Every structure is written in structure tokens, then in C-alpha cells.
């Protein structure tokens, strides 16, 4: 029974990958990191060569052939946008309907529309890395991309809450075979408002089977201010404001 | 999927509790991981003089230290690259990491060796950013442009990014002056 744990700086944060089982190996972890690196290089809006970088720099009418990661994440983003009546918007207000995805072709309909997958793609990267570990025969494992995390197999992950004022931690719960994402909203937070100010000032956590949905649904909860939003059920998710 | 809540939600950030202090690799293991073909590792210490520090500063790099321990990795007497181990301090955390640089000066790999945190881990970073791999002294390493500090988390990754950039610049300078193969 092997047990390995590695961390690398990726996705603008520290990504930790753990793997257990007789077939868990450095190679399986390397492959999982490589998958995350691939998502980053295709979706980073800071990389002008990425699918998103090229889209953002293009004029209206451009048709861009995108990779499988952009197609997957953008189609999920569109689905959540429509289901949430526009609350979830990867254009951050620059043109929610000004981009179209036709299979793997991304079409830019207005000059000003810019895409930012920061609110969903990290979750996809975590899901992908988990699939790599599984397909490499790992019996259990986890991927934690700076708070967007997922765990599978016999590897229960304890989650604690940190008291940022007084210090110390308190047990929040234990996660098994699922994903968990936390986003921070409010003044000074990274997650930006579409219709500022959002009702939530603090942290939103979502548990769901897949990390892509956990990650993205934190934004729906934050914008709606509703930790019991009806959409949560659709992706078997639960949310907390804290 | 199962989530077993422990208590009612309270006003704190969430962190996996096992992550307060983690040792991932030691320096020798990191060297082996980055350069599996190596048959010899030679430890050297680079000492930067005032002129060199100034030269780095003109490229926007604060060398932080005049002494830089470097592992020169070889196979059959030929250099494969170098590995530099460094620490950065964030708001709550101390991160030890290793940077492998190949003979062309490009970052081959960055591995976190250990992570220490005083109370809980909450590293949520804004930005997607470019990968380190393939970056040379000529390509600026930046975390995204819209970063604001979150729970000290932003700091730690920014510091790793800055640290990698510093190491790339120091190794580049040492090579140019013939102090490293």
C-alpha cells in the first residue's frame, strides 16, 4: 500500500495531490499535476496563448477552435447561466450573451466581451486530476487547489474553520467521496461582483459530488444571498454562509 | 458523496485540518524527482557581490541574500541543471520549495517541500497565472493583476512566484559570469 502526497504551485495557488493504494505512484501524481497544468494553459485569461486569452484579444466575429477543457467548462458555465437566470456569468457583465459555443468553436459576438473562468475552471481542474488518479488505479486520493477540493475512496477529509480574528480552528465536518469549495466575498475579496454590492460578505462553502459545480455554485449562492437556492438540489449540492 | 457536519456554521474560513504542517519531500528527493537521470549532485554556494546585487536590482529582482546554496546536477560529468531550495514566509505560513532549472535556464519544475501554518490553511487565490515551467529570466513571472489579499493566502503564492523569479535571475547571472555550468 503506497501513500504519497505532493504539492506544487499551480492555478495561482498551491495544489496538493494525495494518492493511496498499491498502484498509487509518483507517476500517477505527476500525470494528475500535468492534467491541471493543461487546464491552466488552455483556460488562463492571463496567458495570451490560451483559448480564453485568444478569445479576449479577438475582435467581434472571430471563431476560435477551443480545446476540450474550454468546451467542457464553457458549456457548464452556459448551463448554469441559463439555469440561474443570469446570476452566474463568466463574462462578468461584459456580455453574457455575446459569446456562443458551437461544439468546440467559440464565437465572439461583441468586441467588448471578455471571459474569465476563474469562478469555475479550478473546480474542473480538480475533477480532472481526480479522474487521472482513479484511471491510474489509485484506491483513494484527494486534490486540494487552495480550498477547492475533492476526495475519493477511503480517505475521509476533515475540514476545519479558521478563526481569522482570534486564531485557532474548529471542526466543520468530514468529507467523503465528494467535493467542497469555499469562496470569499466582500470587500477586498477576489471574487468580483457582477451587480455590486453582493448580499454576501464573508465565506460561502458548497459541498457537491463534482468540484466544478461546487466551485461555480458558491457564486450563485453569494449573488443570490440564498444558501438554500433551488439550483443546489439540481447538482446534489448543499451550501453554507459563514 | 457524504459530508458530515460537525457543528453549525460559524464565521470562519474553511481549511482541511491535516494541512497545518506537511512535509512533502526533502531536498534530495526533489532533486531525484526533477532529474531522474542524474548520477552526481554537487553542492555549491554562490556568493553575490555588491555589483551583482545591483545588477539584479536593475532587473527588478531583490536578491534578499548574498549567499545561495545551489545543487549542480550532473550525468556522466555533464551538467543537467541546478536545483535551488528556498523558503518564503506568508502571513500565516512558511513554505519551503525547490526550483529545478535546466541547462537552458528554463524552469523545469517547482515542488513544494514543506508547508507550515500557524492556524489553518486557507489559500484561495484569485488568479489563474502562467505556469512556471518554461519560464526563463526574460519572461516576467506575475500572479494576476487583480489580486487582493485573502486571509494571508494570496501572500504565500505571490511569495513563491517572486521566489522562483529571484532564483531564475540569480542562476542566470551566475551562469553568465561562469560561476555555474
Structure description:
- The complex is a heterodimer of chains A (242) and B (181).
- Chain A has 242 residues and is an alpha+beta fold.
- Chain A has helices spanning 26-43, 51-57, 68-83, 121-135, 211-224, 231-234; strands at 2-10, 13-21, 63-65, 99-102, 105-108, 140-145, 148-152, 157-162, 169-176, 178-185, 202-208, 238-241.
- In chain A, helix 4 runs antiparallel to helix 5.
- Mean pLDDT of chain A is 89; it is low at 187-196.
- Chain B is built from 3 helices and 8 strands.
- Chain B is of the alpha+beta class.
- Low-confidence runs of at least 5 consecutive residues of chain B: 119-155
Number of helices of chain B: 3
What strand line-up does the widest sheet of chain A have? 1-2-6-7-10-11-12
Count of beta strands of chain A: 12
Task: Report the order of strands and helices of chain B.
Answer: EEEHEHEEEEH
What's the assembly state of these chains? heterodimer
Biggest interface, chains and residue tallies? A-B, 68 and 62 residues
Domain unit count of chain B = 1
Largest sheet of chain A: 7 strands, antiparallel
- DSSP strand (E) fraction of chain A? 25-35%
Count of DSSP strands of chain B: 8
Kindly provide the radius of gyration of chain A, computed on alpha-carbon positions and rounded to a whole number of angstroms: 18 Å
Mean pLDDT of chain B: 76
The proportion of residues forming helix of chain A, as a percent range, comes to: 25-40%
Largest sheet of chain B: 6 strands, antiparallel
Amino acid at each position: 500500500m503506497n501513500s504519497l502526497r505532493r504539492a506544487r504551485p499551480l492555478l495561482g495557488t498551491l495544489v496538493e495531490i494525495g494518492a493511496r493504494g498499491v498502484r498509487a505512484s509518483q507517476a500517477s501524481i505527476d500525470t494528475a499535476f500535468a492534467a491541471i497544468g493543461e487546464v491552466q494553459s488552455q483556460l488562463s485569461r492571463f496567458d495570451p496563448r490560451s483559448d480564453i486569452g485568444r478569445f479576449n484579444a479577438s475582435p467581434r466575429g472571430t471563431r476560435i477552435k477551443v480545446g476540450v477543457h474550454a468546451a467542457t467548462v464553457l458549456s457548464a458555465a452556459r448551463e448554469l447561466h441559463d439555469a440561474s437566470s443570469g446570476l452566474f456569468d463568466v463574462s462578468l457583465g461584459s456580455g453574457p450573451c455575446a459569446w456562443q459555443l458551437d461544439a468546440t468553436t467559440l464565437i465572439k459576438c461583441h468586441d467588448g466581451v471578455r471571459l474569465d473562468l476563474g469562478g469555475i475552471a479550478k473546480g474542473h481542474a480538480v475533477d480532472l486530476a481526480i479522474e487521472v488518479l482513479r484511471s491510474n488505479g489509485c484506491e483513494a486520493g484527494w486534490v486540494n487547489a487552495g480550498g477547492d477540493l475533492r476526495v475519493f475512496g477511503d480517505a475521509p477529509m476533515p475540514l476545519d474553520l479558521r478563526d481569522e480574528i482570534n486564531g485557532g480552528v474548529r471542526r466543520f465536518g468530514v468529507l467523503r467521496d465528494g467535493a467542497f469549495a469555499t469562496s470569499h466575498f466582500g470587500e477586498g475579496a477576489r471574487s468580483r461582483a457582477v451587480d455590486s454590492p453582493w448580499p454576501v460578505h464573508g465565506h460561502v462553502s458548497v459541498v457537491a459530488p463534482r468540484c466544478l459545480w461546487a466551485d461555480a455554485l458558491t457564486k450563485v449562492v453569494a449573488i443570490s444571498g440564498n444558501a438554500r437556492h433551488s439550483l443546489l438540489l439540481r447538482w446534489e449540492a448543499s451550501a453554507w454562509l459563514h | 458523496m457524504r459530508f458530515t457536519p460537525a457543528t453549525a456554521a460559524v464565521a470562519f474560513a474553511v481549511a482541511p485540518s491535516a494541512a497545518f504542517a506537511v512535509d512533502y519531500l526533502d531536498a534530495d528527493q526533489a532533486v531525484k524527482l526533477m532529474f531522474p537521470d542524474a548520477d552526481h549532485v554537487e553542492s555549491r554556494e554562490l556568493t553575490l557581490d555588491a555589483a551583482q546585487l545591483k545588477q539584479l536590482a536593475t532587473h527588478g529582482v531583490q536578491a534578499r541574500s548574498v549567499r545561495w546554496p545551489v545543487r549542480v546536477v550532473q550525468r556522466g560529468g555533464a551538467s543537467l541543471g541546478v536545483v535551488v531550495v528556498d523558503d518564503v514566509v506568508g502571513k500565516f505560513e512558511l513554505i519551503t520549495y525547490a526550483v529545478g532549472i535546466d541547462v537552458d535556464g528554463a524552469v523545469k519544475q517547482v515542488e513544494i517541500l514543506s508547508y507550515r501554518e500557524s492556524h489553518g490553511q486557507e489559500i484561495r487565490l484569485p488568479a489563474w497565472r502562467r505556469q512556471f515551467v518554461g519560464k526563463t529570466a526574460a519572461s516576467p513571472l506575475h500572479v494576476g493583476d487583480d489580486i487582493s489579499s485573502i486571509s494571508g493566502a494570496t501572500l504565500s503564492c505571490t511569495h513563491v512566484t517572486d521566489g522562483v523569479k529571484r532564483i531564475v535571475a540569480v542562476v542566470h547571472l551566475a551562469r553568465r559570469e561562469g560561476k555555474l555550468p
